[in-house]
């Protein structure tokens, strides 16, 4: 299945360090979001995360808190947001500061996590050729997966 396995210790490590060194400040909402995300391999929408919380927690945070927490986790580089072009952003845990791309099946909507960035090496060329300093990129590849092919 996923090519890149999400390291499940990351959020635990971050959560543990939280109060000690005072560097990483995670709100309660952020911790809850991370603990949901570390149990799933698939991309999850804020709604998915929220409904998981509602089924497992007595006092789940509101959807707005989930959105806000996701936003700050993305800013901290612990979670990446993925745009599949359907208007709803999906989220997943990543190794801090890293990113990756996906092969998304149009038919079953499953996605394969790619283990390497396909464009990072092009970025130097872009700067040389266009004098353009690249700050980021968005790339998801759509098609039909092996299972849906058969
Ligand atoms: Zn498929
Ligand atoms: Zn992924
Ligand atoms: Zn990339």
Explain the overall architecture.
The protein is an alpha+beta fold. It has 2 domains: 1-95, Winged helix-like DNA-binding domain superfamily/Winged helix DNA-binding domain (Arc Repressor Mutant, subunit A, Orthogonal Bundle); 99-150, 2-Layer Sandwich (Dna Ligase, domain 1), CATH 3.30.1490.190. It has 6 helices and 6 strands, in the order H-H-E-H-H-E-E-E-E-H-E-H. The strands form 2 sheets. Strands 1-3-2 form a 3-stranded antiparallel beta sheet. Strands 5-4-6 form a 3-stranded mixed beta sheet, with no helix packed on it. Helix 2 crosses helix 3 (46-56) and helix 3 (46-56) crosses helix 4. The longest helix is centred in the first third of the chain and has 13 residues, at 9-21. The radius of gyration is 17 Å and the shape is globular. Bound molecules: zinc ion (3 copies).
What is the class of the largest domain in the CATH system?
Mainly Alpha
> If you compute it from the alpha carbons, what radius of gyration comes out, rounded to the nearest whole angstrom?
17 Å
Amino-to-carboxy terminus distance: 17 Å
Mean pLDDT: 85
Give me the count of strands. Answer: 6
Instruction: Provide the structure class.
Output: alpha+beta
CATH topology of the largest domain: Arc Repressor Mutant, subunit A
CATH architecture of the largest domain: Orthogonal Bundle
Tally of discrete structural domains: 2
* H/E element sequence: HHEHHEEEEHEH
């Amino acid at each position: 299945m996923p090519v890149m396995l999400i390291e499940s210790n990351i959020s635990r490590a971050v959560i543990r360090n939280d109060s000690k060194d005072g560097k990483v400040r995670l709100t309660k909402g952020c911790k809850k979001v991370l603990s949901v995300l570390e149990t799933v391999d698939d991309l999850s929408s804020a709604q998915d995360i929220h409904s998981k919380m509602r089924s497992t927690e007595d006092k789940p945070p509101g959807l707005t808190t989930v959105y806000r927490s996701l936003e700050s986790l993305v800013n901290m580089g612990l979670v990446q947001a993925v745009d599949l072009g359907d208007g709803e952003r999906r989220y997943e845990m990543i190794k801090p500061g890293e990113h990756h791309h996906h092969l998304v099946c149009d038919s079953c909507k499953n996605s394969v996590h790619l283990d390497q960035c396909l464009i990072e090496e092009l970025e130097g060329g872009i700067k040389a050729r266009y004098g353009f300093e690249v700050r980021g990129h968005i790339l998801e590849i759509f098609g039909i997966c092996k299972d849906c092919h058969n």
